[in-house]
Amino acid sequence: MSSRRSGEINAPRRRVERQTSSCTECRRRKQKCSQGQPCTNCVRRFPQPICEYQVKAPRSRHTPLGTVIEGPSTTTVALTHGPYAHLNPAAVHDAILQVDESEHASSPESMGYSSPDSLSDHLMPITPPATPFVPFKVSLDEEKDPDAVIEKLRVILERRLTLANRLVGDDWITDDAKALVHVRDIRRGLNLPVEGPVEQLRFLPMAPTKMNKELVRIHLQLLCRFKCSVDGNPDPNNPFMKHWVPSCVQDPLLLQIVLFTSACFLAETGHIPKTLTLMHKGKVYQMLNDQLRNEATQITDASILAVVQMVVDSWYWGATLDLHAHIAGLKQMIKMRGGLHKLGMHGFLAKTIIIHDVVMALAHEVDPLIYEQPGFEFDDPIMMPFHSALNSPLIFGWPSFAGTAASLQLHPSTAIILDEMRFLIEAALGMSENPTPEEIQKLVSTAAWVVDQINEFPPDTPARDNPNSRSTSTTSTPREKLDSQSPGSSKSEKSSPVVELPDLMYRCVRMTALIYCRAILNRVPTSAICTEMDFMMIWQTVWKVTLPAWKATIGIFVWVMLGVLPSCHKTGPARFVKTLMVAGWMTIGVDNWHIVMDVTRTAFRLQRWLASGQFNPEGGLSGGESIVDKCGTLVAQTTFAGMCDFGQLRRGISSGEIILPGDDNYEASLRRWSVACEKRATVVVKPSCAEEVSFALKFAADAGLPLTVCGGGHSSSGASSSDGMVIDLGKMRNVDVNPADMTVTFGGGCLWEDVDSALERYGLATVGGVVNHTGVGGLILGGGHGWLTPLHGLSIDNLISAEVVLADGNVVEASETINPDLFWALRGAGAQFGVVTRFTSRAHKQGLVWSGTLVYTADKLPELIAAANHLHDLHNVEGHCLALGIGYGVDGTTHIVSVIPCFQGSEEDGKRYFSQLLDIQTVANSTRMMSTALLNTLMNPVSEHGSRRLMGSGNVTMPLDTQAFLQTAKLFWDFCDSRQGMGNSVIAIEFFPTDKLRSVMQKATAYANRGDYYDAVTAFGWEDASLDTEIRQFNRSLCEQIRSTNGYCAGYSGDGSNEPVGKYINIEADSIKPQDAYGVNFPRLQEVKRKYDPRNVFHKWHGITKQA
Questions:
Q1: d(C-alpha 463, C-alpha 490), whole Å
Q2: Number of other CB atoms surrounding residue 58 within 10 Å
Q3: How far from the centroid of its chain's Cα atoms is residue 290's Cα?
Q4: H or E element: which one contains 221?
Q5: What is the pLDDT of residue 268?
Q6: Which of 132-141, 626-635, 1044-1053 has the highest mean predicted lDDT (pLDDT)?
């Protein structure tokens, strides 16, 4: 012992391995080994095993992981004898579980998120150190419970994210900030004995902070499961996992990349700040650069594997420039090493590089950068037998799907479609390089015939395992089989009605086949055929099939994913879709390298043929940073949402309705006033009462689903749509009028037409919106301007009480006497505090008014401005008001100006009061006596559903500057005239006297826009989605131009000023800073937010937190 070097780790004693000249397989079989690589015995065995040799480890020192060991004829790398090889990986895993459980048991904070299904119930008991390292093992019977894997992963995900969210507030700022300063400590020498499982975890080559330990747990319990298994449940004997997982936790650099990868995942799900990922990224770069500057370590397996993982992370989460830089560096390192065949890990490192290069290229429909390139040749001599799970339409000459349908558990119709697709793809790729017109026509006819065959099948078919479905008789010819086994055939007895369950794999295969067929018919890439909507429909169906089912039909899975993967890059699930595509290719590659190469060759040939041989340049590869940043909590909302038990949700929403993708009414449930704001929700919940809203909120929190609330769906900001859960209050539209108390109580899902018509029967009215198909909730909680505001103030000034479902699911009442702080916040910022399921407001006696629409030619605008200035000077307190609109006639091209006056009195008096307007020549005049319910419909024609919509908030002070306002009108008309389909756009000025709303103090409610100015509303309507960004930018500049030339500009400075903010947040589509939205009331709103929604569950639109 005295001869050992100082500072060497005093590892626990263990039996010294006997040096041997035989491979492990020959030793097991007690045969003489030829000592080849592979040996002659292993070459003859079928299936051929991995031929590996155990070498006696040096006793006096540890070989650094990745050190190059020179042999007689080749260069290999010892990846299993690093400086931390004395750490037993299985014990490290056990330590993680033990520490995890002890921390949860001892932490009082854990009581708030403990799951009824404890993680310890799902994981295997601690294994002896002699057993293989299996960090991804889950105890379950997959045959009896095919959904068990997904459920266990959901539990793990929920627990890991919850703990990470709890740690980030107090741990990463302290421990990891210190670790950043002392990066060198990561590779410090160890001179203490390593004893027990806790010590095993403590002495991993990383800073031993709580957050780092949690990041390792995320990797071992969740992320590594999907490295080469599409269902997250890899075989415990998977040879790749046996090499890859231990290497990643034993080497300091690779472990740091594990921390960085896990941090990227947690930042994607919204559970840690992105700052933490950047910190870990900086550590990786520093350690990697140190290793690359050292000639002894710059091209070791560890260094190359580190760069490979950074390539993957950049593709998933990083910037495009980083991705290309890492790829360029990787190629250079491989060349310096002497090629892919020189890499270690029994060939798995080379296979990992090739598969990631292939999948990235196929995903972006570009040429690969390593595969098939000179200097990067690789071949695996080990041959493996065929098994039916690998059968794919991308491989020719294999047994038909009809013949393997039983073993793959395919519906006969599914097998027929797959066989037809194999035939069509082979026909397309079998064409000559310069085909004749006859050959092209033959292929087109074949493709059209296949499309016709597929279209003969209905969209859905009964599931094979449906106990009520009946098999049809077997026929001898394919045509007869098609007729008899088609989903459309129905030969069941009339006396025995059956309940037919859809075969989801059939549905998925049929939709994907049609994508391929249309691409071949038009000879264009599948990305030109598969729209984002097509992709989302197929993706949702893929989830419903379940990942374990796809694992059993992995060859079909990669064919499906190849057809839709190029269309995923701008969608929420993109990162996880890419992960599964890599996992699918890895699954086949680890099982049978020759088959995965056959699939790869066919895939590239097909993509090149569809692109007419003209692939995009390599610049087509892009990193995933932009889409991850845009979509935020991707995994929570789109990926692991597929693991949610929606059956449980249905049971809890017994009177309401649950709508999932693929349901008949799913598309209708997504419709919004602005088509531009529609999103593909994971689930739409239509509750019937507050208790069901509460259940939905709790379910979303447990499942990690982001959520939003939809009332009327009238927001042009997209606040009423979500990729996660949408709580649609459309079933809660009851209205109860109490004439004696002069109150009206109405459900949170009501539209203003519901309330207006109910009150009109009693000669009553309340302050509502100027468009009656607007939802009551959005308008009230953001303030609420209307025709009756000059008489009675804002909608919130008439609110008496509200029933609110809070973020934690509690149902509470809010009024001046019950939860007064919540009631204060609801009135002006209510969308940030909960779901209001019931409102009670004051009603007022209301007679008929004189109103209607006056239409003028555009040249009358100066006279109308003068009339508006004159009416403002009259300063009435009776509630007379008007709205002026600059827009287009019914033809969508003629410039017009329209005015809607509202006089609270007789027609004679109204005409006298608005005489200056009537003296100007009109094009049309529809004024008459009418109810306020009818008055609230007059603006509906320019606010109909079905267009892309965007609104903006400005204001004007009086008197109006005529020249400045004419310039505003010119800017508006010039912009719309120069673009097609914008005739449904308007600028509206609401000349509603402000005396009543300003009589309420600025701090009396959360609403901070009580100023002496009139609202100016921009409302654009168009059809062409390519104009979205341009219109948004113009809308922003136009509102600013109105405020700067004719209005009031404010900027909240935080000095306690009572000045109004000058923006009406109900119509402000752009997200604005909370200080600019809530002004002087922002500090108090933060306090109320911390009390009622500390987790910021309700954050859509104009958030309360400073990060908003």
A1: 14
A2: 9
A3: 37
A4: helix 210-221
A5: 83
A6: 1044-1053
